[in-house]
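During the no-cost extension, the postdoctoral fellow (Dr. R.K.) reprocessed legacy sequence entries with the updated structure-token encoder. One reprocessed record is reproduced below for audit purposes.
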Amino acid sequence: MPLPKEPTKRASILTEIPPIAASKPQRKTAAKSKVSASASTVEPESNTRKSAEVLRMGSASSAPTPSLLKSPSTGYVPNLGKTGAVITGKVQTNRSAKSARRQSKVEGAKVFVLDTNVLMHDPSALFRFEEHDVFLPLITLEELDDHKKGMSEVARHARQVSRALDSLMEDMDDIESGVALNRLGNVDAMGKLLVQTKELAAELPKTLPVGKADNQILGVVFALSKQYQDKQVVLVSKDINMRIKARALGLLAEDYFNDQVLEDRDLLYSGFLELADDFWEKNSKGMESWQHAGVTFYKISGPAVKDMLVNQFVFCNSGMPLTAQVKEISGRTAVLQTLRDYTHNKNAVWGVTARNREQNLALNLLMNPDCDFVSLLGQAGTGKTLLALAAGLSQVLETKQYSEIIVTRATVPVGEDIGFLPGTEEEKMAPWMGAFEDNLEVLNKPDPAGGEWGRSATNELIKTKIKIKSMNFMRGRTFLNKFLIIDEAQNLSPKQMKTLITRAGPGTKIVCLGNLAQIDTPYLTEGSSGLTYVVDRFKGWPHSGHVTLQRGERSRLADYASEAL
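Re-encoded structure tokens follow.
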């Protein structure tokens, strides 16, 4: 390829080019229709040639583009198009204003439009949006009114929201300008409550029926996005389809995240910690050890302590195997206590021995009288119910530590509801307690010499010590010296879980069992389940413990099905 010829003329210097005269501002009497015409007016040939030369030299150097070169009179030098057309400073100013508005729209306060299901899910949702404003459409208030009757949890939440709204708007003359959300003492709520006081024109597609409540809320969001140009208008809903429709219409929509304890299930506290392979090499020199009542204690210090929590289990498989529980943490020093081996037959609990390490850890918590709250997580077949029931029977009938076992669970059907059940409270709950009946058959192994009479007598004795209670009648009760088992706890909300746990009186132990992969309650996820909530809140408390069971021990068929299906 031949090289280009050498230039015959010397390039002009930037300082030698005369400055471009600023364009005169248009008179106010000029019609708006002439703005576009003036924007496309072509300059004289001399000015166009000089301006084009400035544009070429500006692009070749590191100087700013001509559209950003300021002029003493107008503030901006007119920009040139490809044909030499001038774009007026007014148009450029409008563009910069739009970009500034867009920037403030991203960084400033927002307006959150709440769907009805958010308030029925969390009645305190009004005060969870910090400095942002909360908008309630009238159709949301209508739906709250429709759901306020009854004794269900949803009805109670609807009534609680109505009372909070009544207190907020009491003695307020100008509701249209907004009500401060911190009037009731919620210092974290720094925004305003905006209630729809007039009809908002909506421009939704004709394919969406107007009479549907969800579509009316979408119309309100669409109208507010036009009204508040300087703020983001975001729809908050627990309904997935509602959020999908909003995004399809170009509207912003989010889930309600305030009830999310964790964003990822993998971040949930497992209850145990694996030590590094060089644990003994780094800690053996300064380690102290002693024995008391047949139990060995180790006092360690070092960087590994910062990851430990009280009542957390630690284990090390390399070198000298160690499985212990953290009993005390003081600064960078921790005291570890060895565990009782429930895998051995001599330590069997009601005839049940641990089949793996996690079951051994669980039995250490269940049989520990100083541990008032125990939570067990695990997939189907890991032995949660069997271990809890065996520990309860042992401490009720053998050691007499507790007076009786109380069993309850969330009555959420997997399939179609079969309707009302006849009988007393326990008879109504009996179909939901099939899992406990199955485990009782495994645990009830009387002496063969007793025959059928002995087996029947044992069954009757056990049933007199096990009471099946419904969660609907737990409010106001206090359980004294009971062994309380909450089964299927993953289907409970954080507020329901708080209601149950606060029923515990002196000498009562509460055991929560659940599988986060089997949540059947609407609007609950792995991150917002009450079981996730209590596991995260109780970790590190000296009188609580948690274990996530890993291996299934039901049968080889069940183990293979859980992996292959």
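The first strand starts at residue 79 and ends at 80. DSSP finds 17 helices and 20 strands in the chain. The remaining legacy entries will be reprocessed before the final report is submitted.
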